[in-house]
Amino acid sequence: MITRTTCPYCGVGCGLEVDRSPEGEISLRGDTAHPANLGRLCSKGAALGETLGLEERLLYPEIQGRRVDWDTALDRVADGFRRIRDQHGPGALAFYVSGQLLTEDYYVANKLMKGFLGGANIDTNSRLCMASSVAGYKRALGADAVPCCYADLELADLVVLIGSNAAWCHPVLFQRLRAAKEARPELRLVVVDPRRTPTCDIADLHLPLAPGTDTTLFNGLLRYLAQAQRLNTQFIAHHTQGFDAALAAATQGVDPIADTARRCGLPEAGVGQFFRWFAATERTLSLFSQGVNQWSFGTDKVNAIINVHLATGRIGRPGMGPFSLTGQPNAMGGREVGGLANQLAAHMEFDATALDRVQRFWQAERLASAPGLKAVDLFNAVGEGRIKAIWIMATNPLVSLPDADRVREALRGCELVVVSDVVRHTDTTSLAHILLPAAAWGEKDGTVTNSERRISRQRAFLPLPGEARPDWWILSQVARRLGWGEAFAYGSAAEIFREHAALSAFENEGRRDFDLGGLAELDDQGYDRLEPVQWPVPKGSSSGLERLFADGRFFTPSGRAGFVPIPDQSPANPTNQAYPWVLNSGRVRDHWHTLTRTGMSARLGAHSPEPLVEIHPLEAAAQGLKEGGFARLDSDYGTLLARVRLSEGQRPGSLFVPMHWSETWARSAKVGALINPALDPVSGQPEFKHTPVSLRPWSPRWQGFLLSLEPLDLTAIEAGYLVRVRGEGFWRYELAGDKGSGDWSRWARDRLGETGDWLDYLDPAQGRYRGARLLAGRLVACLFVTGGDKLPSRDWLGSLMNSPGLSLKDRAALLVGQPGEAQGETGARICACFNVNADRLIRAIREQGLVTTEAIGQALGAGTNCGSCLPEIRGLIAANS
Ligand code: SF4
Q1: Ligand 1 site-directed mutation target among 42, 451, 598, most atoms within 8 Å of CB
Q2: Ligand 1 touching residue 736 (CB < 6 A)
Q3: Which of 5, 6, 9 has the most ligand 1 atoms within 8 A of CB, as the residue to mutate?
Q4: Minimal CA–CA distance to 659: which of 583, 602, 724, 732?
Q5: pLDDT digits (tens, 9 = 90+) for 585-612
Q6: pLDDT, tens only, 304-320
């Protein structure tokens, strides 16, 4: 049976067709009818079927680690929230929610907190990813209204990607851009990013500006447009306000190109090219993402970009506009319902009119009257004891917030911590007093909204496992126990959606951007069949609107868009002698958030199996660091250990560390623990892209790895570095440390079991140990340790773990620590779809002379499915041919 649903990862919001056989086997493919992806998928979406197991799921409610029934758990949550509210008021309560929630879940959470518990301390992890875009749109356009749509990617003549590694973070949009450029080579792409990322693979121009100088670049562009007389004076005069002040604030020298280039650390030729292309190209689309948002002046960066679009009138028409790409699958849905603490509901603010309107609509018993605390401030309030009860839903703030170890201390001291999640063991669930098992992707029903305002259905295709329940059901049950049964008498996601749509249309009459009046009366069948649709969908309409602001009217009181004067800024904490490096954090290609889903796929994990720090090769050499070795990073807030990855794309003085590794997956590799908690004063978004750190080599006394068919608990091991990696049918543990037993043979038997055949080799002089345990001829575990840094291929040993029995040659090879005739594949996994590693690609390039992606695709399949690896294959061709 085929179910049409939506990918749960990024904000592209790709449609999927999931086929579940009567035997329960799952296969999936891109939905050719979904307008976001038109059948395409990236490596993460294509591997979703590998992440559906129940191995790590939370399946039953728990109180203090003991399984309880739902009634007991729900009573305890309701009693706790009631008691603390009665004693300390609604300001002592908080919800911390997530862009992983469906809109219907989000709606109920917001209604319960702001309408009935009477507080406004509900904020979302979307605060960490795109709050600056929300604030920037609101300042300029009068509403959190994304003007553009994905079709503009194909219609634009110039696409500017700012702070966006779309090739890895929005891969299907990147695929669309690549296809558009192949069809129309005259389409130009400019990438503005301190790093040369895989997105630059198809760029005509890369501007590797100094970190944090984007406002300088776009202010310079504004002044250039004015000097070159390329402003749209008609549009400025009739549809905007504040232009003169914005131009005056765009302080540049006599020559905007030379001055901008000097201040951004860029060559003049590149800046001049960009300015001239921008000035001359009417259909210009600016795509921006976390590299713009995650700064202490992210909102100003957004407005600097919007300013140049308003100055040229390039908004509301095909192929142009300032277009924010959201990180999470339902960041937009959260914004729509009021999941941000500073929004009331349905894009309404905390003004008297909206408060009165929402109170009447909800028949709210006690409506919050003022905005609540934004994410970082909210957890600060937990730490200070002002918030005494917190309910965290579908997110892992102990990993993802800045100064993350302080968040752990805050939660440790909190009177009541409730966590609803789908995973049993996360850093955050480890501190929960009450755990509530939530339904996961594939089990729950509802809607999500992608970056282009398109609402799509997520549909269930699996039964609810154990006692897992949808988040809206859990919230409604607690609300009923608190005495608000009538207001939360929901029987389905469809009922909630109708109410959400009706609120958006309530006393709207076109005055508010977010309006789903045309969907407010969908019956259950209509909701089930709902096709992807872009809001607004006002009453009388069902088809939605591709672009906003075509009529030049905006949602400000005057109806005009507002320029925002942008002063010069710099990061909150500059580098200094003690911390001379700039730490930038972000995603890698095949992982998502804190690994709770992608960590379960061996295929996805193979691309970047371990925490890493990217550094320019010349700087690495100067620091005594080498590829695959270890580095230690310190900031004022924490410490991190990671493998070194050399990258010529890394800007000198800058380091890049992925955000994905939690304490559940690795020891000392949580980048959030290093990040400074500097905030944008307007949006409250933290400065994830700029933390001053120190860097030095870490040379452990020993290092090694362990493969085991069974998962192991190694928490007691004295290893500074410990990383868990999912292999194909086994678990892999990477280890390194300064302390250790020395008696590895004993150590291995204690942890891996005494019984069966043991093959051992020990070389005390070199600190070398090789040990393998076989049961009935099958390799079930092995440990390799060295006092140096040479270790055998993990892929070779992984293939032996999957072998039903070892030959004599295999046994000998195990003891020697080297494969025999059969050469195992080594190097990073480049193509996740066809399991092709870097070494195999390099051999094909050098030995077979395959020097185009097409030739490689024909020979090895690599790059021919989702295409996510094409930039890396192209990089290997360039380096090896
Ligand atoms: Fe999912 Fe990839 Fe599409 Fe994002 S681009 S929604 S991760 S398939």
Answers
A1: 42
A2: no
A3: 9
A4: 583
A5: 999 999 989 898 899 999 999 999 999 9
A6: 999 999 999 999 999 99
Give, for 497, the enclosing helix (H) or strand (E).
helix 493-505
The total of other beta-carbon atoms located within 10 Å of residue 242's CB is 18
Residue from 699, 773, 783, 805 nearest 734 by CA: 783
| Residue 500: per-residue pLDDT | 98
Q: Which two tokens stand for residue 306?
A: 């919007």
Ligand 1 nearest-atom number relative to CA 42: 2
Instruction: Give dist(CA 494, CA 523) in Å, integer.
Output: 8
> What DSSP assignment string belongs to 280-312?
H-SSEEEEE-HHHHSSTTHHHHHHHHHHHHHHT
Q: How far apart are CA 347 and CA 354, in angstroms?
A: 10
Q: Using a 6 Å cutoff on CB, does residue 44 contact ligand 1?
A: yes
CA distance 434 to 18: 33
What's residue 838's pLDDT? 84
**709-742: pLDDT as tens digits:** 999 999 888 899 999 999 999 999 999 999 876 7
Sequence-ordered list of residues with C-beta below 8 angstroms from that of 418, at least 6 positions apart, any chain: 77, 80, 389, 390, 391, 392, 432, 433, 434, 435, 436
What φ, ψ does residue 762 adopt, rounded to 5°?
-130, 130
Q: Quickly count: other Cβ atoms within 10 Å of residue 808's Cβ.
A: 7
Which pLDDT score, from 0 to 100, does residue 859 have? 86
Ligand 1 midpoint to CA 46 (Å) = 8
**Hey, whose CA ends up nearest to atom 8 of ligand 1?**
45
Is any atom of ligand 1 closer than 6 Å to the C-beta of 397? no
**Do residues 326 and 454 touch, judged by C-beta distance below 8 A?**
no
Mean pLDDT of 91-101: 97
Long-range contacts of 277-280 (CB under 8 A, 24+ apart): 277/158, 277/188, 277/190, 277/205, 278/158, 278/160, 278/221, 278/225, 278/308, 279/224, 279/225, 279/228, 279/230, 280/230
Tokens of 55: 């191995």
Q: How far is it, in rounded angstroms, from Cα 310 to Cα 233? A: 10
Q: Which of 811 and 469 is assigned the larger pLDDT?
A: 469
- The CA distances from residue 650 to 600, 615, 624, 646, in Å, are 29, 6, 17, 8
Three-class DSSP category at 196: coil
Terminal alpha carbon distance of the chain: 47
Per-residue pLDDT, averaged over 45-74, amounts to 96
Reading the block at residue 836, the tokens are 């092709």
d(CA 149, CA 156): 11
| pTM value surpassing 0.90 | yes
Beta-carbon contacts of residue 341 (< 8 Å; ≥ 6 apart): 120, 121, 122, 123, 371, 372, 373, 374, 378
Question: From CA 218, how far away is CA 325, in angstroms rounded?
Answer: 18
3-state DSSP call for residue 361? helix
* No. of helices (H) and no. of strands (E), the chain: 30, 34
pLDDT of residue 823: 47
Question: With 50 as the cut, is the pLDDT of residue 875 above it?
Answer: yes
Using DSSP, state whether 708 is helix, strand or coil. strand
Is the distance from the beta carbon of residue 7 to the nearest atom of ligand 1 less than 6 Å? yes
Q: How far apart are alpha carbons 671 and 635 in whole angstroms? A: 10
